Each structure stands twice: as structure tokens, then as C-alpha cells.
Amino acid sequence: SQLVNIVLAPVIAFYLTRDVDAIRERFASWLPAVSRDRIMSVVSDIDRALAGWVRGQVIVCTFVGVATGVSLGLLGVRYALPIGFLTGILEIIPYFGPVLALIPAVLLAAQKSTLTALSAAAVFVGIQQVESAVVSPKIVGDCVGLHPLVVIGALLIGGALFGVVGMLLAVPVTAVLFILGQRLLVDPAR
What is the reported pLDDT for 190? Predict the structure, then answer.
């Protein structure tokens, strides 16, 4: 079943991308004429926020991957750039992704020396601290339109309530709730 999903995902993405305007118009035609513009405006805001979240995640993952690859390269670890690339990709998985990327980095660094392995581990910890405390809240928050403290709070609450899945979905769900609350509750005339 996973193989079917892997094959179908690009096909669905292709048709959604190609026909997004027609789908949007069809959806809008089903809405009552009185509230059509207002609902479509909210949908557009949500779309913009979710696209910003994806863009922010890509920027953060790129930062972590490049910082890791360059740092390991400066330490003289073999395959530093592929490890940086792997780290950037795995960064999307909260907590476990960086740990999964740390294992091959430390093992390869240990081939050089114990000090290099410890330095590689310290580099990972340092990059993760900077990413989680500064880069991710600021970049993702700016891209989504949320204050960095809201992003941190959403991640903490999402992680506490729903674990890793909660952390993955915390920011986009918070952004959607913020938009709905702002547009429908605070400023219902908009």
C-alpha cells in the first residue's frame, strides 16, 4: 500500500498543480454567492500560510544541512557533504531526524579519532540548539506570519499532546487556527 502511495503522490501533485485554478473556481462555485468572496479570501490566506510553512521548513533544512556539511568538512570527516545532505533531509523529523543523522557522522568521525567523533557530536548539538532556539522559530514564524514565541509554544504543545506527529503539524495547524480566528471571530466583516 505504501508503494501505491509513493507512485500516486507525484501523479496527484501534477494534476493538482496543473488544474489548481479550475479546482479553486469549481470549489468557489459551490459556495453561497453572499459569502463566496469572504470564504475564498480565508482559503487564500490559509494557502499562503501553509506555503510559507513549507518554504520555511525548506530554508531551515537547508541551513542545517549546509551548516552540518561544512562543519564536518572542517573537522576532516569523510563524506561530510553527503552527511550534511542527509541531515538536512532528516531535519524535517523532530528529535529523531537529527539523531538518525548523527549516528553515521559520529561513526565516520570516529574512524579519524575519538576527539573528532566528540567534536562531530558537539557540532550536531550546537547546530540543533541554534536551529531550535533561533533559526526555526524566526524563519518559520516569519514565513507563516506567526511570532517566534507562538511557534515555540505551538511546537511544545503539539509535542506534549501528540508526540512527533504533533510537532510536525503544530505550526501549520496553529497558523490555520490563527487565520480562522482572526478572519472569522475578531474581524467578521472582512
Answer: 56
